[in-house]
Design a protein that fits this description.
Elements: H1 7-11, E1 13-17, E2 39-41, E3 46-52, E4 57-61, E5 66-71, H2 74-77, E6 91-94, H3 100-106, H4 110-119
Antiparallel strand pairs: 1-3, 2-5, 3-4, 5-6
Length: 120
């Protein structure tokens, strides 16, 4: 889900695509208990591209290293879900279990995120 303060949500979202240029994340094929076949993502790997009502595009990064398990294809038909908790998730990324604590420690709190917006 995008942060409620994200510029695209303030202006209005026109579209979302999982085709990031060199690959289409919606073509991800995951099988079995071990989630074989999931695309490996780095923190800065783009998951999706959002276009707002002013035709400005935003790359949505993974923010964590892990396997792409699924993308929310419902967003392709109804971009208004993007700002909604629960239904508005963009993707599910599964980190390695041994990296979970480090990943949690590296994530911003809401206050840190809001402070970073004020610096822009």
């Amino acid at each position: 889900m995008l942060a409620p303060e994200h510029e695209a949500l303030r202006v209005g979202v026109k579209s979302i695509t999982f085709d990031i240029g060199n690959t289409n994340r919606s073509q991800n094929q995951v099988k079995g208990k071990g989630k074989k076949g999931g695309m490996i993502l780095q923190q800065d790997s783009a998951i999706a591209i959002i276009t707002d009502n002013n035709d400005v595009t935003y790359k949505v990064p993974s923010c964590i290293q892990g396997k792409l398990i699924e993308v929310n294809e419902r967003l392709l038909k109804d971009v208004s879900l993007l700002g909604k908790e629960g239904d508005g998730y963009i993707a599910v990324v599964l980190p390695k279990p041994e990296q979970c604590e480090d990943i949690k420690a590296s994530l911003m709190t809401e206050d840190q995120y809001l402070a970073s917006l004020n610096k822009l």
